[in-house]
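Researcher: Sequence recovery benchmark, item below. Answer with residues only.
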């Protein structure tokens, strides 16, 4: 998997995991597994989260994560005319490539 694909996968997992309240690694990992039928490695999680934090798409609150306003906007843009999670993931990958 490319770096952009991994980052978009973890980002989408954070978006779903933190819809109601910030989520920890465990919650994010469970959602990521549901999206891709694979558990992200520690390295994938750490490097993706670092990139997302540095690009103001997520925020860390204690040991939990949620989307920033920029992150919410990006996720909403990935949903335009899409109903499937995999299509959202691919759209996010394209949007993240442009950052």
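Model:
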């Amino acid at each position: 998997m490319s770096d952009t694909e991994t980052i978009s996968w973890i980002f989408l997992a954070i978006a779903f995991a933190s819809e109601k309240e910030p989520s920890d690694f465990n919650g994010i990992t469970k959602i990521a597994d549901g999206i891709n039928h694979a558990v992200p490695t520690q390295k994938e999680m750490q490097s993706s989260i670092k990139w997302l934090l540095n690009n103001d798409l997520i925020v860390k609150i204690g040991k939990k994560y949620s989307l920033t306003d920029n992150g919410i906007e990006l996720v909403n843009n990935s949903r335009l005319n899409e109903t499937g999670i995999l299509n959202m993931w691919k759209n996010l990958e394209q949007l993240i490539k442009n950052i």
